[in-house]
Amino acid sequence: APLMRLEVTSDTVTFKVGDEVFEAGPKSAVRLTGEEFYSVHNDADGDAELVLMSTRLADAPFEKQEDFWPE
Question: SS3 string of the chain?
Answer without folding.
Answer: CCCEEEEEEECCEEEEECCEEEEECCCEEEEECCCCCEEEECCCCCCCEEEEEECCCCCCCCCCCCCCCCC
